[in-house]
C-alpha cells in the first residue's frame, strides 16, 4: 500500500467531541470549497491559527507542530466518507520575521520566507478529498480542523520515528487545553453540480 494512503482516503466515523473547539460555522465564516482535477480542495480565508499561544511560542524561538484534518460527510457528520490528515511544523525567523514550514510524513517537503497568512494558506492548500462516490446532486459537508500541539504532545510525537494515522486521529479526539489551540471551519451543504457551475470551482 502506498505510504500516502496512511494520510489520504481513510474511511472512518471518529468525530471530535462537541464543545471543545473554536468553531467558525456561520454563513460567511466557513470554508470555500472548490473542485480541481476531480478533487475537493478548500480555502479558509478567515481562519487564523498562527496566532495566540502558538504564535507566542514561535516568536520565542520554539517550533510548533500543527495537525490538520479535512473530512467529508454526506450525512451531516453521522459518519465520515473521506479524510485527509497531515502534520506541519512551523518555525519563525526572528531576524527576517518570516515563517518556515516542514510537512512531515511522506513525501516530506518544506517552504520558507512566508508571512503568517501565507503560511496558513500553504498548509491548507496541501489538503484534498476524493469525492468519487458522491453523486452530482447529492449534498455533502466538508470540515477543516486545525490543532496546535502543546509541548507535551510535541515531545511525545517527536520521539516516534513515524506518526501513524490512528495516532493523529487520537490528537483530534483529545480535549483542547487553553485558548486558541484548536480551530474549525465548515462548509455545507454543497453539491458537486453547483461546484462545476462556479467559474473558478469555488463554492457559490
Which bin fits the share of residues in helices? 10-25%
> Approximately how much beta-strand content do the residues carry?
25-35%
For the record, the count of structural domains works out to: 1
The radius of gyration is 17 Å
> What's the overall geometry?
elongated
- In the sheet with the most strands, the strands line up as 1-9-8-4-5-6-7
Mean pLDDT: 78
Low-confidence stretches: 1-28
What is this structure, in a nutshell?
The protein is α+β, with helices and mostly antiparallel strands and 204 residues long. It contains 5 helices and 9 strands, in the order βββαββββαβααβα.
SSE topology sketch:
Layout: E1 22-24, E2 32-36, E3 39-43, H1 52-59, E4 64-73, E5 82-93, E6 98-103, E7 109-114, H2 116-125, E8 140-148, H3 151-158, H4 165-173, E9 182-190, H5 192-197
Parallel strand pairs: 1-9
Antiparallel strand pairs: 2-3, 4-5, 4-8, 5-6, 6-7, 8-9
Amino acid at each position: 500500500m502506498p505510504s500516502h494512503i496512511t494520510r489520504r482516503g481513510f474511511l472512518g466515523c471518529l468525530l471530535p467531541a462537541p464543545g471543545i473547539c473554536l468553531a467558525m460555522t456561520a454563513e460567511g465564516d466557513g470554508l470555500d470549497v472548490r473542485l480541481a482535477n476531480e478533487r475537493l480542495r478548500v480555502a479558509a480565508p478567515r481562519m487564523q491559527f498562527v496566532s495566540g499561544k502558538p504564535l507566542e511560542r514561535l516568536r520565542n524561538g520554539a517550533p510548533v507542530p500543527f495537525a490538520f484534518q479535512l473530512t467529508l460527510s454526506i450525512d451531516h457528520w453521522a459518519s465520515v466518507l473521506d479524510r485527509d490528515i497531515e502534520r506541519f511544523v512551523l518555525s519563525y525567523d526572528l531576524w527576517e520575521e518570516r515563517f518556515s514550514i516542514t510537512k512531515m510524513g511522506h513525501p516530506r517537503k518544506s517552504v520558507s520566507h512566508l508571512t503568517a497568512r501565507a503560511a496558513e494558506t500553504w498548509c491548507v492548500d496541501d489538503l484534498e478529498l476524493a469525492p468519487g462516490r458522491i453523486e452530482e446532486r447529492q449534498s455533502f459537508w466538508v470540515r477543516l480542523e486545525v490543532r496546535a500541539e502543546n509541548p507535551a504532545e510535541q515531545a511525545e510525537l517527536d520521539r516516534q520515528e513515524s506518526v501513524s494515522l490512528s495516532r493523529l486521529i487520537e490528537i483530534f479526539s483529545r480535549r483542547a487545553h487553553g485558548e486558541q489551540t484548536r480551530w474549525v471551519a465548515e462548509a455545507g451543504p454543497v453539491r458537486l453540480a453547483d461546484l462545476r457551475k462556479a467559474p473558478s470551482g469555488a463554492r457559490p
